[in-house]
Structure formats: structure tokens, C-alpha cells
Amino acid sequence: MDKRYYAFISYKREDEKQAKWLQDKLEHYRFPTNLNGRTDLQKNVRPIFRDVTDLTPGILAEEINKALNDSQWLIIVCSPRSAKSPWVCKEAQSFIDSGRTDRIIPYVIEGVPFSGDEATECYPEALLNMKGNKELLAANVNEIGREAAAIKILARMFGLRFDTLWQRHTREQKKRRIIWGTIAAFMVVVSMLISGYFYWANNEIKEKQNKLLISQSKYLASEAQKEYDKGNITKALRMALYALPKDLKNMDRPYVPEAEIMLRECDKPQKEGIYSRSILQHVNSVNSAQFSPDGKYIVTAFDDNTARVWDAKTGEPVTEPLKHEDSVNSAQFSPDGKYIVTASYDYTARVWDAKTGEPVTESLRHDGPVYSAQFSPNGKYIVTASWEWSKTARVWEFPPLEELIDKYRNDPEHDWSLTDEEKAEYSLE
């Protein structure tokens, strides 16, 4: 190449984006070392000149003239905007005046050549006035697309058949897509393998940590039992709390039933004995009677469709009647004395607040009369017995463990957390 530049790209400033794309495309295109026997083709088509400074009206700047004279080809980015540009026209005219008309390649991105309409004409005046202008070969993006138009420019510059170069280009593009697709698939597989390994490793670590925490919680529960047996109820309760998760929905340590059993055991009020006898006067048959765990109250169930709570010392009722739609067969306190469960011929069992006499749950429904209902020793469940077609007893969960944990974790008057000394005593830190 006896010129410094393969080509000079002339364009209007508003078309700079398209001009820059064309320059990058041409400069990064790689010819094969042997194309149809041609061994004179360069591997790269560079450099290509594209000015990035505005020109003032009048005579072309000296450096632009120099670049024009030192370029083998002139590529004009043609659009209705560049058609009106005096600078694009002067650059085209300069090439024409130097006798290199056959070295001008119009690159049409918008508009119509020789349209005769100022709104759509895309050729500058210098091209329109050129002799034999209608034979000027253009690379029209609107007709063949941007990629093909760029290949057409290369074919013209190096005297190659467009079809040959375009077919080779499409094959290369397809091969490149296959290669990059294969690389992408490989990277996806590698990423999956790496993710799988880290997932497995994290699970292994978590499993080992959980085993240690389970052992620790069971150990704490057994030590809490010892403290409970010594009468250190508060300390036993704190140890049981430490062994349980802070949040059951997002557990920071595994749940162990032994810790819950100890927490519920510590939650039970201490017995204070039975008070002096009194007569609880009824107007119907009494079906059941039971003391509260602390011995202060008695609950009775009878045939007038109600259960009642009485002060065990005075024999006076302390709540309004607990009403059903039919006879009440049994009434039982929860282990903590806060709730009462009743069973009735109206096919339901119900749970009531022992202090207020208000229902605290929806009715526990059967398909027949409910003969009895009772809390489990830890207060977590209610069992009901009924005559119905299925001939079954049913177990209901009560109360939620979350409420019990929150009762102590959110206690505004006490901090039930283990002290640092207690954590050290049981090797928790």
C-alpha cells in the first residue's frame, strides 16, 4: 500500500455513530491468508481515517487535505443530512478533482440516491454533478443490511466478488457463534459444577455445625433438668431458652424437643396446695370438676349448657358462664392454668381464657357429641373424644411454641438470657 490510509470516511456530525461503527468493522475485519488464490491480501484493513473535529466553512483544513491525499479510497456516509453538508461535498469534490472518481464508495444509511427530492436525497452535490454518476456503485444499508454493506465496501476496495466474500463472512460468523456458544455452554457447566461443589461443601459444614449444636442443646436440657430439680427454676429456664432457636421460622440452631420440654416444665406455676372446702351450688347435674394447677380455682361442667369457673376458697364464680349449645360433658384447665377446654354434646370442644371467660380459639368440631377434652401435660396439645361415624379421638395443637418463646424473649421485666458466666460454665462460648 503506497498510501498511509486505506480509506477516508466522510460524514456529517449527526451520523458519527454510524461512521464509527463502519470504521471499527473495516479495521477489525480479517482476510484469510489465501482467498481464491489471492496471496496479496492484508490480514487487517487499517488504518482508516475518520476525522473527529468540526471543520469551519471555507477551504478544507490542511490536515484534512493531507489525509484525503494520503487515502486510497473515499467512503461517504450518505444521508439527507450529509447531502446538505458543505464539508462532505468538498471532501468528495477533492477526490474527484484528484482524478480518483472510481475510488469513491457511497455508504448509504438513509435516503434515496438521485431522488430529486431535497427531503430524501442522500448524495452530496459533488456526486450528483459527477459524470457517469448513475453508475457509481453504492453499498446501501437499506437494501442489504449494515453487515453486508460493509462487506460490499471491502469487496470493492480489494477487487473481490461480493458473493464470495459474503459467503465466507457468514461461514465465519456461524463458526464464531458455534465457538462462543460452546464456550458459553462450557462456562455454564463449570459454573454449575462450582456452585454444586460450594452448595455441597456448605451443607457439609452446616450439617457438622448442626450436629454440634444438637449435642449442645441436649446437654443444656439435661443440665437444666438438674438445676430444676435443685429448685433453680430461673436458671433452668434460661438454659432451656438458650438451647432453643430464637426464631422458629428462621432457625439459628436446630430444634431439640428436650429443650422445649424443659421450657414448658419451667413455665408451670408452682403448686401452692388446695384451699379450704366450699360448696359450689348448681341447678343441674354436674358432669365434671377440676382444680386449676395452682389450686386457686375450680372449673365445673354441667347439663345447663355451660361450664363455670369458681374461686376455690370462697366458692364464688369468677367468670361469666362458658356457654355451649348443648350439655357440657367435661371442663379441664391447661397445665399453666391460663386456659380451659370444654367438651359438649353440641359436637364441639372450645378453649377459653380462664380469667375472662372469653373464647380464645375457633370451635374444635367433630361429627358427633364430644364426651371429653384434655390438655397434654406440656400444654402443647388438646385431645378430644367423640361419638361419631369414624369412632375416633382427635389431637389438636395448642398453644404455638412461638408464643411461648416470645413470652420470655420479649419479657420487659426480666432478661431470660444466660449470663456470660453461665455460658462459660457450660462451654457455650
Question: Explain this structure to me?
Answer:
The protein is built from 12 helices and 16 strands. It is an alpha/beta fold and 429 residues long. It has 3 domains: 5-160, Rossmann fold (3-Layer(aba) Sandwich), CATH 3.40.50; 183-267; 286-398, Methylamine Dehydrogenase, Chain H (7 Propeller). It has a 5-stranded parallel beta sheet, sandwiched between helices. A 4-stranded antiparallel beta sheet has the order 6-7-8-9, with no helix packed on it. Strand 7 and strand 8 form a beta hairpin. Helix 9 (233-243) packs antiparallel against helix 10 (257-267). The longest helix has 68 residues, at 162-229. The radius of gyration is 47 Å and the shape is elongated. The two termini are 79 Å apart.
Topology:
Blueprint: E1 5-10, H1 16-27, E2 48-50, H2 62-69, E3 71-78, H3 80-83, H4 86-97, E4 104-108, H5 125-128, E5 139-140, H6 141-144, H7 146-157, H8 162-229, H9 233-243, H10 257-267, E6 286-291, E7 297-302, E8 306-311, E9 322-323, E10 328-333, E11 339-344, E12 348-353, E13 364-365, E14 370-375, E15 381-386, E16 393-397, H11 401-409, H12 420-425
Parallel strand pairs: 1-2, 1-3, 3-4, 4-5
Antiparallel strand pairs: 6-7, 7-8, 8-9, 10-11, 11-12, 12-13, 14-15, 15-16
Helix pairs in contact: 7-8, 8-9, 8-10, 9-10
